[in-house]
Amino acid sequence: MATDSHGMGGRDPQATPGSFGAGEPARPFEGQHHARGYEGALDAPLKGRQMVVNLGPSHPAMHGVTRAVVALEGETIVEMKLDIGFLHRGFEKSCENVTWGQCFPYTDRLNYVSSILNNVGFALVVEKLCKMEVPLRARYLRVLTGELHRICDHLTLVAAMGLELGAMTVFLYGIEARDLIWDRLTEICGARLTSNYVRVGGVSRDCPDDWPAKVEQTLARVAELRETIDKLLTRNRIFMDRTRGTGVISREDALDFGFTGPCLRASGEPYDIRKAAPYLVYDQLDFDVPVGKNGDNFDRYLMRMEEMRQSDRIVRQCLRQMEPGDIVVQDFRYVLPPKPQVYGTIEGLMAHFKLVMEGIKVPAGEAYSYTEAANGELGFYAVSDGGGRAYKLGLRAPGWPMVAALPHMTKGALLADLVPTYDSINMIGGEVEQ
Amino acid sequence: MAKAVLEALAARFPGDVYEPYEGVGGDDCIFVRKSEIASVCRFLKTEPALAFNMAPYITAVDYLGVEPRFEVVYNLLSTVHNHRLRLRVKVPEGDLELPSVTSVWRGADWFERYCFDMYGLKFRGHPDLRRLLMYDEFVGHPLRKDYPLRGRQPLVKEREIGDIFRGPGPAGRDG
Question: Locate the NADH-quinone oxidoreductase subunit D domain: which residues (chain A) (predicted)?
Answer without folding.
Answer: 165-433
